[in-house]
Structures are given as C-alpha cells and as structure tokens.
C-alpha cells in the first residue's frame, strides 16, 4: 500500500499562521515555592538539533522594504556608482575592553537596562532590590526596595524619569528614578510571576507578560488594565513594543512568537520555527522591521515578520543557552558618524559565562567578552556611546568599552554594500538622530570597583 504523501514544509507553516492560541492550561506556582531564579520554569523539551533550513537560504534574502536614512538618497547611490568609488571596508572584529565593575547585589542579577538618555543603569536582582547606577562613573545612586520577591524585569519610560519593575511577587511597581521613591499604587492583576515589561514609545502604556500565560496592556496614569490578551498556552517570557507603538510582540515557552495590534488586541501574525524550541526573549529591531528571539536550543533568530507570512532570515550560534532565560541587545560599530560605514551587531550573554557579539549581516562572531565566572543573564548596549553592560549569576555588573583594535589584529573585509538581495551592513538604519550618534563619554578609571 502506498504511503500517504508527506506534507511540504510550506503546508506545515500554514498551520501556524495566525492560529488562535491553544487552550490555556491552569498554571500554578511550583510546589517548592519560588523557582530557581530566571531558570526556565518548565524543563526544556528535547528538540531536533539539525541545521535549520533558514541558514541555507541566507544568500537569497529579500530586502526591498528597507527604510533609507537621510544619507542614502538616490543621488548618493548615483554618485558612488558613477565615481567607481569602492565600498568601505568592513571590520570583522571588535575590541571591547573591561571598563567598570559594579558590585552591591547580594544575589544573582537577572536584568539590567540603560536609561534612554544614557545617564543611568538600572539592575534587578533575586535579592528583591533594584539599584540605579551612574553609567559614567559607576556610582550607586539609589537602592529601590518594596518588592517581596526577586526582580525579573525592568523597563524605562522614554523620558528616563520612571522605572517599572516586575517581580515574582506578581506585582508591577513604578519608581521615580530621580528620587528613588515608589509611586503609591502598584499595578496588580497578574496571577503569577511577572516576567517581562515594556513601556510604549509615548510612555502612557505598559505591556506585561506573566507566568500566568497572559499579556496585559496597562494605562500607566490610571494604574489599570486596558486589555488582557490570552496570549499563549505556556508562560509568557517576554514582550516588547515596536518603535511607533502600534504593535506588540510576545513570546512563550510554547515556542510561539505572536505579533499583536495594540489598538484592537488582535493577533496579526504567529511566528514559529520548525524546531519549536521554547522562546525566552524577544525584541523589535531599532527600525521596527525585524524581531530578535532567543530560544533554548542555543540559537538566536532574526525574523522578518512583515514579509509575507514572516520568515527567519538569520540564525546566530556560538553561545550556550539551554537552561536559563537570557537576553540580548542590538548595537552599532564602525564609523558611527557616517551611516554608510555604520554596521549592526547583536550582543548576548551565554551560560558559559561570557558575552558574544555577532555581526548582524554575516553572522560572524566579532568578539567574545570574558570576565564573568558564571552564567551571564542580561546584556544591554548604551543608546549613544560604545558601551556594553552585562550581569548574571556572579552578582556583578561589568561595563565594557570599545577600543581601537591592536595594529596586528586589524582585520577587514569588503562590505556587502547595499545589495537588495542580502541584508545590508546595518539593516536597522533609522532616521532617528539618537541612533548611531557619536557621544564623547566622561573619562573614567579603567577598572574601579564600586561597593554598596
């Protein structure tokens, strides 16, 4: 008897497109109380580790929807081609060096964020405290106390005046970053751990994701839930707003990434990789055209969610991530004063105790930062300067600063230019003057240690 025909991958993908969430299960706190901090709450299932088919098609990427920056006008393209000027050479290595070490937390640090104005670093820990540090000197400015359990997530308001925190105590608190005082009314509504938070670009809304499998949209001023989305069938591990606030992205241990319409609460797109690994972190690219996702198969994937049904265009590997919820960030390198010589990189922590930097376009590892001696859970990049902050289970925050490559180590390759068939050197170029603008930082001793 003839066996039934195998379903094509295209037919299989159609099953996942815009599908409604599966029936929600009853989530309860672990029997042994509070979980191991930032440990994936449910054991990772076994998945195929075969090479993803998305890697085999990297040379056929479609990128005709790129938003050109002011420097990429048609006249600039013509002038370069007419003058036969060779494209700029693209560095293939970075040289971030240790700059500051910040100590003060008594337990593992699960999250850290630079403020949008770049003046502060906020860190949250399993010790149930939040600390605000000066990003230039490393001085401790405030210690925020009020949560009853470990801190999972932090997010800054766009004007850098308010900090929001989510905790294992199921609450969300808002803090005045200048005074270090909490706003009187916490945001209560989730029935389990609050895993992720993000402010809207205008600062009037807050989105939260929780272990209770729901995504809540909050009115910050009224301190009430505007909309509740039964988003996933497993804990919601991360949420984010797109740069204009019209879309929300969420991800879960169920392996799904969902894109939502902020105004209607409708699920516009569902993204899922064939390996269906639990997704622990998502964020939009600076220009809002891509989604970066961490998964528990030691992979980070870049999704073009707006093209067709959405597809994975890049997969970054070289770190270890099979157990903990790690986070990462985008950054830029090269000549930041010239958009045509500015390139994008992805930074992420690793369970091996380091930080890995990849070139977005080539997927090559640009540098590995060593210094932490345990799992690095959180990584963030400075919004204006060439600085990277990292933290994790060793209870320390390390600040890394870009330095020129030693002469013997300088490597360069020809840029892939702006060929529309592949990702450009900086696929996240934006007209926003704040992105990629060089700012001279305050000179600081290269290795002071700050104590609480």
Automatic annotation (TrEMBL):
WD repeats lie at residues 102-143, 144-185, 187-228, 229-270, 272-309, 369-401. Keywords: Repeat, WD repeat. Residues 70-83 have a biased composition (Low complexity). Transmembrane segments: none annotated. It comes from the Eukaryota. CDD domains: WD40. The keyword Transmembrane does not apply. Residues 1-11, 39-67 have a biased composition (Basic and acidic residues). Coiled coil: none annotated. Residues 443-452 have a biased composition (Polar residues). Residues 1-95, 408-452 are annotated as: Disordered. Pfam families: Beta-prop_WDR5. Residues 102-401 form the WDR5-like beta-propeller domain. The keyword Methyltransferase does not apply. This is WD domain protein. The gene is SWD3.
């Amino acid at each position: 008897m003839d066996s039934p025909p195998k379903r094509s991958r295209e037919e299989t993908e159609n099953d996942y497109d815009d599908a409604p969430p599966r029936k929600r299960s009853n989530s309860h706190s672990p029997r042994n109380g509070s979980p191991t901090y930032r440990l994936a709450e449910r054991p990772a299932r076994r998945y195929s580790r075969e090479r993803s088919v998305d890697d085999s098609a990297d040379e056929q990427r479609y990128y005709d929807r790129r938003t050109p920056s002011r420097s990429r006008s048609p006249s600039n393209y013509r002038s370069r081609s007419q003058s036969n000027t060779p494209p700029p050479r693209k560095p293939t290595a970075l040289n971030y060096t240790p700059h500051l070490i910040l100590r003060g937390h008594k337990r593992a640090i699960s999250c850290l964020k630079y403020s949008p104005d770049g003046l502060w670093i906020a860190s949250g820990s399993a010790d149930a405290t939040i600390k605000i540090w000066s990003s230039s000197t490393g001085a401790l400015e405030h210690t925020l106390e009020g949560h009853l359990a470990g801190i999972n997530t932090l997010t800054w308001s766009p004007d850098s005046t308010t900090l929001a925190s989510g905790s294992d105590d199921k609450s969300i608190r808002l803090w005045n970053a200048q005074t270090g005082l909490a706003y009187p009314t916490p945001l209560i509504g989730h029935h389990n751990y609050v895993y992720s938070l993000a402010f809207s670009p205008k600062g009037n809304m807050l989105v939260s994701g929780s272990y209770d499998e729901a995504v809540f949209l909050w009115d910050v001023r009224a301190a009430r839930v505007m909309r509740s989305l039964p988003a996933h069938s497993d804990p919601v591990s991360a949420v984010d707003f797109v740069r204009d606030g019209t879309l929300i992205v969420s991800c879960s241990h169920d392996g799904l990434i969902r894109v939502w319409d902020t105004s209607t609460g409708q699920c516009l797109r569902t993204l899922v990789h064939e390996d269906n690994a639990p997704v622990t972190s998502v964020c939009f690219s600076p220009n809002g055209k891509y989604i970066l996702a961490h998964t528990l198969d030691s992979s980070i994937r870049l999704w073009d969610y707006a093209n067709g049904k959405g597809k994975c265009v890049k997969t970054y590997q070289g770190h270890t991530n099979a157990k903990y919820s790690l986070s990462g960030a985008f950054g830029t390198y090269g000549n930041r004063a010239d958009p045509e010589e500015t390139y994008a990189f992805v930074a992420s922590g690793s369970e091996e105790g380091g930080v890995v930097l990849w070139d977005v376009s080539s997927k090559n590892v640009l540098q590995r930062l060593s210094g932490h001696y345990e799992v690095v859970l959180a990584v963030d990049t400075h919004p204006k300067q060439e600085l990277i902050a990292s933290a994790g289970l060793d209870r320390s925050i390390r600040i890394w600063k870009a330095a020129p490559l030693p002469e013997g180590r300088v490597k360069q390759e020809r840029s892939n230019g702006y060929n529309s068939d592949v990702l450009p050197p900086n696929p996240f170029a934006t007209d926003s003057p704040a992105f990629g603008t060089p700012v001279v930082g305050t000179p600081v001793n290269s290795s002071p240690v700050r104590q609480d």
